[in-house]
Amino acid sequence: MPSYFQFVLTLMNGLTYGALLFVIASGFTLVFGLMRVLNLSHGAIYLLGGYVGYTASTTVSQLLARSVPALHQAAGGGFGWLLGVLAAAVAGGLVALVLQRLIRNVHGDLAQTLLTLGLAITIGDLCLWIWGGLPLTLDAPDAISQPVRIAGIPYPGYRLFVIGFAVLTGVGLYLLLFRSQLGRIIRAGVDNREMVAAVGINIDRLFLTVFILGGALTGVSGAIGGTYLAFQPGTDFDILTVALFVVVIGGLGSLLGSSVGALIVGLIDSFGRAYFSELAIFLLSGTVILVLAFRTQGLFGRAN
Amino acid sequence: MTTTPSFSDKRAGDAAAATDSLHGRLRAISARRVRRDLLLGLLVLVPAALYPLVGSTFHVQLLTSGLITGLVAMSFSLLAGFSGMVSLAQMAFYGIAAYVVAIGGQTYGLPPLATVPLGLLAACLLAALFGLIAVRSSGIYFLIMTLALLQMFFGVAMQWQSVTGGYNGISGITRPELFGLSLRDAVPLYLLTLAVSALAYVGLRWLLQTPFGLSLQGIRDRPERMRALGFRVQLHRWLLMILSGLVAGMAGILGVYYHGVVSPDVAGLTASLLPLLAALVGGVSSLVGGLLGGIFITVLISVVSAQMQQWFNSSHYWTVIGIFFMAVVIYCPNGVFATDSRIRVLLARALGRRGGDDADTAQQRR
Prior knowledge:
Number of helices of chain A: 12
Membrane topology (chain B): Multi-pass membrane protein
Transmembrane segments (chain B): 37-54, 60-79, 91-108, 114-133, 140-160, 187-208, 235-258, 278-304, 316-337
Largest sheet of chain A: 2 strands, antiparallel
Strand order of the largest sheet of chain A: 1-2
Organism (chain B): Rhodovibrio sodomensis
Keywords (chain B): Cell membrane, Membrane, Transmembrane, Transmembrane helix
Protein name (chain B): Branched-chain amino acid ABC transporter permease
Oligomer: heterodimer
Largest sheet of chain B: 2 strands, antiparallel
Largest interface: A-B, 47 and 42 residues
């Protein structure tokens, strides 16, 4: 039954894409919730994560294959890939650090948001300068790329890994935000930053921590997403678009909203492409407009 | 009231006389300002119109492109400076007008006499639709809504291939004739752009001093109070949004004739940055600043891209422009020529004037 086959495949692809979108959007929404800064360089950091991860993983893999071929064989490219993901995290965190330093000089939400737009353009063009315009992907390690049978249909193992990673990220962020002291401070900062500063917490350092965390998470999502979705110049704008759609549907600043929004966007995108091809974008845009028309603050957002 | 009618009448009469004289004085002042502005306008317009006599074709084209960017910047400043709505969606209005003219002309073979009004109408309609969704939010949320709407436009332009031509867009759009002059030459198109820009500017200036325009500024500064006074805040915002869509649409039509091609890139991040940058450089609270900023930015990009080519053999001028944009946001948030602009302070110091005063007032304002 090809239609059954197609349905399951489309569903799985939608879930995978939704999982990746959740990881991308959670950093976005975390930073927005605490700082009211709409980080328009989010897509650029994702793209940079992909490129840095690509360079790091290919370089390490080549070095390893040349110097210790036995180990490289045994790891199945796993070392290079893992280091690529780590390098992407570092790159994302560094960009976030720079951005936070720049943002401190600017007052007002809107000016800060415009500053991130300038950074997005700069990073995007630098990436094009360094890595050129060809689409790239990272090589997935053999250990997690074996096909797995789901409902009788073979499905790429790496995509299941992406879903697992998203679930882990979600649980991790939940524990961090709602079960730890740092999370309590962050949530207090979301509600009333002056008060948090007044009780003696270094709010600047808190912001920096969250910003770097969000940047690193975005960089990682660039490497992990870039392992199964090719990235190229322009991907930064695409990723910013879907991340924005996710948080606008789900509600800005809400982790639960991000997860639901990511699933909605992922599934609509996947089914739209499979069954309506050209009209997929209208389906997605229509959903966003519908949600906004009836709930300006998104499904799980608090009224502003 | 009936016991002292003469007293009360006298007071009312005095008050009326005082109001009359105040009105008279205000009218005299505004008449003087209008005369001064007209004179200034002519002083700028006449040399600008005569410029093609001395300038090269390349520079005339540069000015045309700058004015087109400036028009979009003006439509941005109209919203941001006079109603507090920072809209990132202006290039969508530009884009839809451009697409309508391109599709109408190329696909359906309609004459410009039909496509140009249709393009403007489409820009107004899209602005009305976006406005319906966006005006309910304000501040950063308005910006988010407009960015989401811009991205929707980008997505539709990219993926609706049978109509929009997808990634490549629509090319080969020929310029029409106007008053027997072919716009294919650089100079007539430049003059047309100059005339449209000047008319749009004068029209918006006139509109902003009408009761409608004044209540808009009231809404920008104190939306709650204006609402309490009975003004229909959202209706005002919505109408202004449509108006700014119209201005951006004019720019879109000039732009599609200037470039001869339209693609989804017009609504991309980099293309949307340009009018923002122009408006920021000129100062968001000034309409003419947008026009001047547009010219400034276009010339700057031309110079930077030439220098990048020469020094680094690279076409990546956007890196420089992005950094420049960030510098403007950090150092001159109210425009390069505003009193708190660091560039102006530094210039004043360099010229040996006492820059300390400017710096002090800037400090106080923070």
